[in-house]
User: Fold this.
Amino acid sequence: MISPNARRVAATVGIDAPFLGHVGRLSRYNPSVRSGWARTPEEHMSRIVLAGYNLDADVIAELVRACPESPDLTPETLSAAYARISRDARPVDALRRLAREDVARARQSNQRIVFGLGHHSVAEHAVFNFDVIDVSRLAIESLEAHRLASYTEKSQRYVRLGRDFLVPDEWAAAGLGDAYRDYVLGAFDRYQRILDALVAAGIDAKLAGEDARYVLPLGVLGQLGMTLNARSLEHVILRLSGSPLAEVRDLGTRLLELARPIAPSLLRYMDPGPYDLMRGADIAAAVRDVFGGAPCRQPVADADDIPCVRLIDATPDGDARILAALALPALEGDLTEALARVQRLGEGARRRLFEGATDRMGIHDALPREFEHGVMTFELVMSAAAFGQFKRHRMASLTWLPYDPSLGLTIPPAIAQAGLSDLLHQMDSEARTLVGRLGADHPAAAYAWTNAHRRRTVLTTNLREFYHISRLREDEHAQWDIRYLVGAMSGEARRAFPVCASLLGGKDLVATRLAEGRG
Assistant:
């Protein structure tokens, strides 16, 4: 039941009474006090106000048409209001109201605080949603390289693909537009042949589709939904604008054209400078200067002999480091002494410490942050299909090299068993010939490589984040390519952290293991 006093408070602060159940406990309002909020230990109760939430752009447009005299609808007012919190004693909802009443002043405040004073985090309170439609798989790699955003992408695993693809400007400018178009159409013919053959062999249509896509190039179109704040958007546009690919630069331009009219005070500096444009060339020049231009690359005799997973480095005695951090609050000492004590323990005692931290853990629970003190660096060789999934793990540090045909192809086992591997090898041969005409070092050459082509990557991750990767990518519902890759990584992780990595595995496997252990 809502008390009369609560109703009066709600009316004072502009909250509808039915909404009180969602607001939390309300503090007592006293208009005789300048600050507006008088608190005693007995009366103090916190107040939570829903300040805003995402609205579909079509709904916003309808509101503007219905109320043309309404103030500018912009997330800048939230940034301006929150920027004042540190130096203004008035309640936050009052600051928001003031910002809405004078949008021009709010924008001036943002420009002064965000760009004049350098408090860029203020821009993070303004959030945008974008539908990104009909962009190539290669351009999506550039977009999703930015970790502080949320992406939901059309899956080539679950969606039957039509003949939708991009003829890149670079290929057309080189007089190779028709050749590239014929190449991709040939890929779709092979896609359909593989799909039909696998379904005829009794393979589920969805599984057949996720294997058949390995024959398709990276110029095939996709789509995604993207959510990010204004600070991240500014960074994304800056990086996209410095890309060597025309499609990616155009993507940055379009994002800016859509967002800048809505939040001009938060999107200002997005023209790439010499550092952004020349960094790759500068590093290459420094490498030639230091190493004399001698490449590290060794001739590949047989691509099948290339290790797909190599653990390059791991925290020495990482179990002890993690367990010492877990035990530190209870030991009430310093880390050096806690680490020394844990290092003297046998594996059984270490395992009891680990079980103390994980015994109540459910399958969807995250490991404690102390597991971030154990770090691994892997060198990985993976297909474009696997990379399309792996790049989504943005809390780890991932460095990737260009696609390299000398690393061979990843051929789905179902395709090999159906005797259709030649179709992928034919695509590889045609891609190499086509790329040779454009130039192997041309940035746009990557549009010709297929989902089966491979690239070399370097991943540095802590054990906590790797548990998340393992849970998702080793699950029975995970795609076979990335499941095999992450499974091999988990094996290396268990050798590096025999105690603290012992619960790695997909959700299905670990759920069973946890249930058995607690039974």
Q: What stands out?
A: The chain has a mean pLDDT of 86. DSSP finds 22 helices and seven strands in the chain.
